Amino acid sequence: MANLTIRNLKKVFEGIEIIKGIDLDIKDHEFVVFVGPSGCGKSTLLRLIAGLEEVTSGHIHLDDKEITDMAPAKRDLAMVFQTYALYPHMSVKKNMSFALDLAGVAKSEVESKVSEAARILELDHLLERKPKALSGGQRQRVAIGRAIVRQPKIFLFDEPLSNLDAALRVQMRLELARLHQELNATMIYVTHDQVEAMTLADKVVVLNGGNIEQVGSPLELYRHPVNQFVAGFIGTPKMAFLNAQVKASDAASVTVALDSGPVYTLPLDGRTVKVGDVVTFGVRPEHIQVADAGVSEFSVKLDVTEHLGADTYCYVKAPNGETLTVRASGDYMGRYGQEVSLVPELAHCHLFDAEGRAIPKPGAPAQAA
Amino acid sequence: MLSLKQTRHLRTVLIGSLAWLVALAIFFPIFWMLLTSFKTEIDAFTSPPQLFFAPTLENYIHIDERSDYFHYAWNSVVVSFGSTFIGMLLAVPAAYSMAFFETKRTKNTLLWMLSTKMLPPVGVLVPIYLLFKDFGLLDTKLGLVIIYTLINLPIMVWMVYTYFKEIPKDILEAARLDGATPGQEIYRVLLPIAKGGLASTILLSLILSWNEAFWSLNLTASGAAPLTALVASYSSPEGLFWAKLSAVSTLACAPILIFGWLSQKQLVRGLSFGAVK
Ligand SMILES: Nc1ncnc2c1ncn2[C@@H]1O[C@H](COP(=O)(O)OP(=O)(O)O)[C@@H](O)[C@H]1O
Ligand SMILES: [Mg+2]
Predict the structure, then answer these.
(1) Ligand with an atom nearest the CA of residue A37
(2) Which residue of B has its CA nearest to A72?
(3) Which among A4, A57, A304, A313 is most buried, taking Cβ atoms within 10 Å?
(4) CB half-sphere exposure, A363, CA atoms < 13 A
(5) Residue nearest to ligand 1 atom 18, measured at CA
(6) Per-residue model confidence as pLDDT tens digits over A38-52
(7) Which of residues 170-209 of B touch A (CB under 8 A)?
(8) What is the 3-state secondary structure (H, E, C) of B229-267?
(9) How far apart are CA B126 and CA B38, in angstroms?
(10) Are residues A88 and A19 in the same domain?
């Protein structure tokens, strides 16, 4: 069992509140990812959970035990650091067995646990080496091995892949996902990379400025971001934001006029806005099509196009100077400066009020402000 | 024009020669002292100085008759190792807390500690002398150990702090999560990683204590006098005897020179501050 409950957790560094009252529940076997821009407090939150930083106020419970002020080693958690933090003077084997040795576990048991972890991570042939003689990926695996042998209730990862090159990062990402299945473990993973968050998580926690912006599954965040920050943070290329004004609204639809010209009616619950309100219209590159000039009322100019093979990303400029990204098929050929028109899929478009809150879909439960 | 390879070669030769020159300049006095110690007092005074002469052991024999070399040598060993040992016992925890639990005042504290080294020792001679007299520490090895520890502590803390600073904090945090107590964290993780730096700190402290003369001359008579005091006793009112003075100086320097030479690899590695990575 590993249910982590965090209640109104705060952390103040030198008079500045870095973590501003976090409430969060993490369930057994979940893979939870903390994601957010750098400096938003992800590492601090993880370190508070680990016990490496002192909590300023609030509570952390693991199952029915309060661990808020408990020593790190007593919490039954293991952490994998961004820098790996291997003990440079110890062999791979010693690195992995250190915790067990300290705990006074019997030699034979240590031996079997280490070799089991080495087998899972394919480190068998490296056990006698010192960390210095390992590649980045191997060091990473030793760091994970060091956590595995302890069979902790929760694994904590702080940007474990950020020091690896791109190819290795993808491979290790898959290995982590596989490991999560194989160990059936509870994991908390910190990253600033929303792709890692989307691919690994059962549950994503989007942090910003020491607050939780939204908690949900990757698809929930992608489909129903509760605010403009989450909408802009999740998804690549980023969602485009265009200024607009409400022309009409009721419980099932909102009509807006974009500053760049077109007027659209979206299937949203418009009871929280009124005519004349300034709003932001959000649309992802994959939810908008490019068409020949004149096909729609939304006419724009093509800027640069990027051919990635399967897809082409077109950067376009609206008459009022606003820019947006559009995903087209791989064989789309547009000329720089060409006039084209855009056709958004209105069912997948978003509106955000002046405070950046998403205007909900009809029937969706009202979002807590 | 020289080719790139030639330029590089030339530079190597130039830098090499310069290094040799500096080394020779530093070594020359020691060499001359050694040479003089085997001369008769008359040869030692000849001008111009001779490079070739009939060597003699008479100076060493004289010293052996006049004073108990091993008494002084033993005192030197006890006070330098003793003060280094106690110094490290204090410097390691101090540097540990400064390096890994840094506060806004840490840097100032370090600077303040170092600044005590700028005070001329003679300025505090009288108060310290009186304190030593009151506590019965005059002419005791314990007294010297205490004073040497205090003199060298700022440098030791500073050096150890610098080495510790190079060690990523994460490694100690990992140990903490692995269940290490603060003691285990220091002895099983921190010290083994920093051992190169610690060795050179120890070495430096030994050398500084071994060579210290001001306090040993002023606070000891004969009972606890180390080798520096022995050397001083040969430049006495009877007039200067160069050859004997050279012989006794050679004897005073020899142990620490040999010790330093044996551990020079450690010293170079430590002083280049590349302890980890
Ligand atoms: N030990 C500390 N002392 C003072 N400020 C800190 C400390 N640790 C982190 N901070 C501050 O807290 C904020 C969040 O840091 P961090 O949790 O590391 O961000 P993230 O991991 O999301 O990039 C940063 O502004 C950082 O400067
Ligand atoms: Mg971080």
Answers:
(1) 1
(2) B177
(3) A4
(4) 1
(5) A43
(6) 999 999 999 999 999
(7) 170-171, 173-180, 184, 188-189, 192-193
(8) HHHHHCCCCCCCCHHHHHHHHHHHHHHHHHHHHHCHHHH
(9) 40
(10) yes
State phi, psi for A252 to the nearest 5 degrees: -125, -5
Residues of A in contact with B185 (CB under 8 A): none
> Which residue's CA is the nearest one to ligand 1's atom 7?
A13
In this structure, the answer to whether residues A198 and A269 fall within a common structural domain is no
In whole numbers, what is the pLDDT of chain B averaged over residues? 88
CA of A222 to the centre of ligand 1 (A): 27
The torsion angles phi and psi of A46, rounded to 5 degrees, stand at: -65, -40
ipTM confidence: 0.85
Domain boundary among A204, A231, A258: A231
Of A231, A259, A288, which closes a domain? A231
pTM: 0.84
In a mutagenesis test of the A interface, which of B103, B106, B178, B184 is the best target, namely the one with the most A β-carbons within 10 Å? B178
Given a contact cutoff of 8 angstroms between Cβ atoms, the answer to whether A46 and A72 are in contact is no
Greater confidence (B43 vs B2) lies with B43
Q: Is residue A141 part of a domain?
A: yes
pLDDT in tens, A265-307: 999 999 999 999 999 999 999 999 999 998 999 999 999 999 9
Residue A78 is nearest to which of B177, B184, B188, comparing CB atoms?
A: B177
Give the model's confidence band at B275: pLDDT under 50 very low, under 70 low, under 90 confident, else very high. very low
Give the residue on B whose Cα is nearest the Cα of A83: B170
Closest CA to B143 of B87, B83, B89: B83
Number of domains comprising chain A: 2
Of A17, A44, A48, the one to substitute when testing ligand 1's pocket (max ligand atoms within 8 A of C-beta) is: A44
The beta-carbon neighbor of A85 closest among B171, B179, B180 is B171
